[in-house]
Each structure stands twice: as C-alpha cells, then as structure tokens.
C-alpha cells in the first residue's frame, strides 16, 4: 500500500453519557489516476484481458496500488485494488464506501457455451474496470452501441472491486455443472425472523461491486449486465451506502442506520490465520476448484425506523449490549474493551440475555465467527404508511453457510433486535477463489 495507514482506531474516549458521535472521515482528494477517454491503453476486443497484464503475465496493478492518499481518519485511499490474486478482491480487501450488488439468472435457452463465453468476457471487462479503464471494445460507430456505457469516464477507479458468486441453482442439470457443485452450496433453510420477498431473493449468479464512488460501482454492474444481454437476466439489484462493517481495525468503525457502531468485533481480514479458520474454503472441500474461495450470504434486513426512533436510549443500548455513543460494551468503557458476559448488577446480566452481542458473540457460539461486509440501504418511503424504508443489506463471508444458519437460528429466535427488524431478502453463493494470471471465470467454473 502506498497510503499511510491509520496508526490506531478512532478515539475510544470511554465516555458514555455525552454524545460523541463522530462523523465518518471525509473522502480524501481523488487520486490522479483517471479513466481514459479512449481505449488505447486497453486494446480492442478479446485481447484486453491480456493487455492488463505485463510481460510474463504479471498483473500491472498491485493490491491497493496507485498513488494513494489517506483520509483524515487515516484510512488508506489507494486508487486501485488488484483484480487477481489468491482470493477474489472484495472480501478481505478494505471495505469501500459504496456497494452495487446484483444477481442474475441464466436466460432460458442459453447454453453452457454461452455461459462460459460470457464469464470469460466478464473477466476482461471487470479487470479493465477495476483498473479504471473502459470496457474493452470500441466506441461504436453511429450504427452500433459503444462497448462501454460511458458514465464512469473521468472518474477515478475508486478502489473498485468486482466479486462474482454462484448460486445453488447454477449447479442443476442445465449446464453440466452438477459434478462441480461446492459441497456446502444449497438453498438456505427457512429461518426464524424472515419473511422473504422472492423479488429480492436468490439468483444463479451474483456480482458484488464495491467502490468509493457509487457511480463507479453502478457502472460496473451495468456494463456486466449489458455484456450479458441474451445470456443472463437481471433478477434483483441493491445499492448500498455507508458500509456497516470495517474489515480491519485500520478503518474507523462506521455506524449503521440505528446509529450504533457496527463492525467493532468483526474479523480483522488481515489476520490470515483467522481467515483460514473461518472464511476461506480449505482443503476439506472435495471440489478443488473452489478452495481458497468462500461463501457469501446476503440478507436484506428492513429496519422499523419509526419504531426504533421512538425507543428510549437505555433500551436501544440494551438491545445491542453496547453504548450508543462510544460503542463500548455495557461492561466496559472503550469501544474495543472485551465484553464481560458474566458481569451482573442487581442480579441481572449487565449485557442482557437477549442482547444482540451476547447472542452473536463467538464466546457463546462455540467460537463461531463470520466476516461481515454489509451496507446500509434505502428504498425511499412506504407510499401507504409514509414510513421510511431502509435498513441493512447484510453481506457476510464464511467457509460454510452453516455458520450463518446457526447464528440466525439463535438471533431469529431470541434477539431483542427482532422487534425492530425483519429479514426480507436472501441469497447464498459460492464465491470462487481469485484468478491467476491468464485465468478467467469461465475456465475456472467449467474446468
Ligand atoms: C446472523 C448474523 C447476524 C445478523 C443477521 C446480524 C444483523 C444485524 N446486526 C446489527 C448490528 C450489530 N451487530 C453487531 C455485532 C454482531 N452481529 C453479528 C451477526 C449478525 N448480525 C455478529 C457475529 C456480531 C459480533 C458479535 C461479537 O463478537 O460481539 C453489533 C455490535 C458491534 C460489532 O461488533 O460489530 C452491531 C451494532 C444490525 C443492525 C443487524 C440487522 C439489521
Ligand atoms: Fe449484528
């Protein structure tokens, strides 16, 4: 990384009475790396995947490369994130500010060859876009559409990452992929606390585009959708803002739409041992092609904001088991103090029995951990009630979706938060490992 990392977490002042809600660090000045108007640097057509690689197949970009800057909070603001590597970018790489998440179904009539070709084309396009370049091809003459839709021209790459995942349905009998199904990939069972809308649930494929600029993230998904005309059909899409989890203590902990710091005890994604134990699919997986990948679980979780905003502060804090201002556990003073789940006052647990952190903590779940990487979302206003529509677009990575199922069975049944939320959308996807030089998503999936 070229940017100076933050020396420490945001201030943990230990005060719980006075409001100390600090604003998100402002975005740093844009990097000088900007999108090119013309395609010269990329080349034309299918040669582009190679054009992004230097001699000997070495990727020109490095993880978090480019002339980075540090935001006032100290967070690195490098321009680009490596597309290739052992793991796909967008999981362990630092969370960006914005999300565009879409799922697709393979179109009726599309063949195995169509899908394989599309995935190869998507690879070249995704790699180019993460480098801040336009989708490979040409500008189009007056009688043909341009190969890039154009709305990211002049914008910086914004640390764009494009992460692909495959839903359970892709491994049915349509494309001859049944023998390559990752062993834990199956539809999630019915879970407590959900009332799922099929319009925001499932999908054969998912694309998670994250960037510091919403237009860059949207542009990435839109261009993959355009390249997919005739082969895949969009199923649903979600825009996210205000990342609700940090994936490294170098990032100041953001706040969710309930006003609480979210991500304090998330996995530090730089910790390879912990990632190896809990997040990356390991040697135990019989499907070798997916080792080094992960499973992505998405949940669209609606918040009953009007109800929450009428709740008193003491109850809000009891719901999470943490102070709203500092983010400290109710048994501590600083945000990163470990919660003391045994502490009692007046015969009652200080961190209530039905509090979110008590129920979700690894100490109380046989060490179970997941990597959370969610975003806030809004759908505007409910026309009938006038209520605000929005909440958490929860995304988590883990080495088996069973981890999520185990946690949600507990949370959905006992969490005090349930009074204020409902799970309305869901998805589960196998996320393959990263691509080596010269490899593409089509060949990786079909072998
Ligand atoms: C099934 C997994 C989880 C769901 C669903 C979930 C929903 C959800 N969470 C918050 C807000 C917070 N969550 C926090 C901690 C936390 N949450 C989960 C899991 C799920 N959350 C875990 C594993 C943890 C860590 C527990 C621990 O180790 O102590 C926190 C506290 C701060 C933090 O550590 O991140 C907040 C705040 C909301 C609003 C929400 C649904 C809308
Ligand atoms: Fe949570």
UniProtKB/TrEMBL annotation:
It catalyses: heme b + 2 H(+) = protoporphyrin IX + Fe(2+). Residues 243-254 have a biased composition (Polar residues). This is Deferrochelatase. It holds the Pfam family Dyp_perox_N. It is an enzyme of class 1 (oxidoreductase). Involved in the recovery of exogenous heme iron. Extracts iron from heme while preserving the protoporphyrin ring intact. One of its GO terms (cellular component) is cell envelope. Its cofactor is heme b. Belongs to the DyP-type peroxidase family. Residues 1-34, 133-155, 243-263 are annotated as: Disordered. Residues 253-434 form the Dyp-type peroxidase C-terminal domain.
């Amino acid at each position: 990384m070229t940017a100076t990392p933050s020396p420490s977490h945001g201030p943990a002042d230990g005060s719980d009475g006075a409001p100390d809600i600090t604003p998100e660090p402002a975005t740093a000045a844009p990097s000088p790396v900007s999108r090119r108007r013309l395609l010269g640097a990329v080349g034309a057509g299918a040669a582009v995947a190679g054009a992004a690689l230097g001699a000997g197949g070495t990727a020109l970009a490095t993880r978090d490369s480019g002339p980075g800057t540090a935001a006032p909070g100290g967070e690195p603001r490098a321009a680009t994130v490596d597309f290739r590597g052992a793991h796909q970018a967008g999981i362990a790489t630092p969370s960006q500010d914005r999300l565009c998440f879409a799922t697709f179904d393979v179109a009726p009539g599309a063949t195995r060859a169509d899908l394989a070709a599309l995935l190869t084309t998507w690879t070249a396009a995704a790699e180019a876009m993460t480098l801040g370049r336009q989708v490979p091809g040409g500008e189009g003459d007056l009688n043909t559409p341009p190969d890039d839709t154009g709305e990211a021209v002049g914008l910086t790459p914004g640390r764009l990452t494009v992460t692909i995942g495959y839903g359970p349905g892709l491994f049915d009998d349509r494309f001859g992929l049944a023998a390559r199904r990752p062993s834990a990939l199956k539809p999630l069972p019915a879970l407590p606390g959900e009332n799922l809308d099929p319009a925001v649930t499932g999908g054969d494929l998912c694309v998670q585009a994250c960037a510091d600029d919403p237009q860059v993230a949207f542009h990435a998904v839109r261009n993959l959708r355009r390249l997919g005309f005739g082969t895949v059909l969009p199923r649903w899409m979600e825009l996210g803002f205000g990342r609700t989890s940090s994936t490294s203590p170098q990032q100041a902990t953001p706040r969710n739409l309930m006003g609480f710091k979210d991500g304090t005890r998330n996995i530090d994604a730089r910790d390879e041992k912990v990632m190896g134990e809990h997040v990356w699919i390991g040697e135990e997986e019989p499907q070798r092609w997916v080792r080094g990948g992960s499973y992505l679980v998405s949940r669209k979780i609606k918040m009953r904001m009007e109800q929450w905003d009428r709740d008193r502060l003491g109850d809000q804090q009891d719901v999470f088991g943490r102070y709203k201002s500092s983010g400290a556990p109710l048994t501590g003073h600083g945000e990163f103090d470990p919660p003391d789940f045994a502490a009692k006052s007046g015969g009652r647990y200080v961190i209530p029995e039905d509090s979110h952190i008590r129920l979700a903590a690894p100490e109380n779940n046989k060490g179970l951990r997941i990597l959370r990487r969610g975003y806030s979302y809004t759908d505007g206003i409910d026309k009938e009630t006038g209520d605000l529509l929005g909440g958490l677009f929860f995304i988590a990575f883990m080495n088996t979706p069973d981890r999520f199922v185990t946690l949600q069975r507990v949370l959905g049944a006992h969490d005090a938060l349930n009074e204020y939320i409902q799970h309305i959308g869901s998805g589960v996807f196998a996320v393959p490992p990263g691509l080596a030089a010269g490899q593409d998503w089509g060949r990786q999936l079909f072998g």
